[in-house]
Amino acid sequence: MKRIAVIMCGCGSRDGSEIQESVTAMYAVMRHGLSYEVFAPNDDQYQVTNHLTGEVLPEKRNMLIEAARAARAEKIHSLDKLNVKDFDGLLLPGGFGAAMNLFTFAIDGLDMSVRADVAKIIHEFHDARKPIGAMCIAPMMLAGTLQHCDLKITLGPESPMKDELRQKMGVYSVESPADQPITDERNRVVTVPCYMWDKATILNVGDGAYRLVGEMKRLMEN
Q1: Are strands 89-92 and 35-40 parallel, antiparallel or unpaired?
Q2: Cβ contacts of 157 within 8 Å, gap of 6 or more
Q3: pTM over the 0.90 mark
Q4: What is the mean pLDDT of residues 143-165?
Q5: What is the phi/psi pair of residue 120, to 5°?
Q6: Do residues 93 and 81 lie in contact, with contact meaning Cβ atoms separated by under 8 Å?
Q7: Residue 11 is among the residues annotated as catalytic for this protein
Q8: Residues 48-62, mean pLDDT to the nearest whole number
C-alpha cells in the first residue's frame, strides 16, 4: 500500500494547520486506498489565537501536541522522525498558522523563509520524484522552497503577487476554483485552493482534497 506523509503544525486555521483541510486530506488518502502518517514539529507555535474572536492569547502551545487533537496519537509523530524513504508522497494542508509556523509568508511576504527541516523534507521528496500535494496557502511554502524550478501552483484567485512570484522565484501562479487541483507534471506537484477562496465551504475543501490525492495517486503509478 502506498503511504503518504502529512505535515501539520497545530490544530486551528489561525495559528496552526487548517483542521477541515487536514481531516479531509486524511480521509481522502484512505478513500483512495492509500495510508498516511502525520508529522508535526515538536516546538511551540508562533502564536496562539482565540478562533472565536481573533485575539492573540498570552500563552504557548506545542505544534505536535495540538496537531494530535486532529490526527489522533497513534497516527502522529515528531517531524524529526519523518524518513522520506518510508513514504511515496508528501501532503501539506494549509492554514494561516502554517504560514507562520512552517514558513513565514504571513509575516514576511515574499521575503519569507521556510523552516530548515521542512525545506529539507520537501527537497528530498522532490529530488526523489515523489509527488507533493499542497492545499490552500501551503503552495507558497513550495514556492519558497523549490525556487527557479519553473514550478506551477494555484493560490485560488489570480494572485496580486503573480508577476513578482514569477520574477523573484520562477514560480507560475494559476487561477483555479476552490475544489479543482492544478498538477505540475514536470515537478510532480499538485496544489488546490480550498479556503484561499473566501466563499469556499467544507464541501469544496473535501472535494478538492479528494481530487488532489487522486492526482497524487496517479503520479505515483506513473
Answers
A1: unpaired
A2: 175, 193, 196, 197
A3: yes
A4: 93
A5: -60, -45
A6: no
A7: no
A8: 97
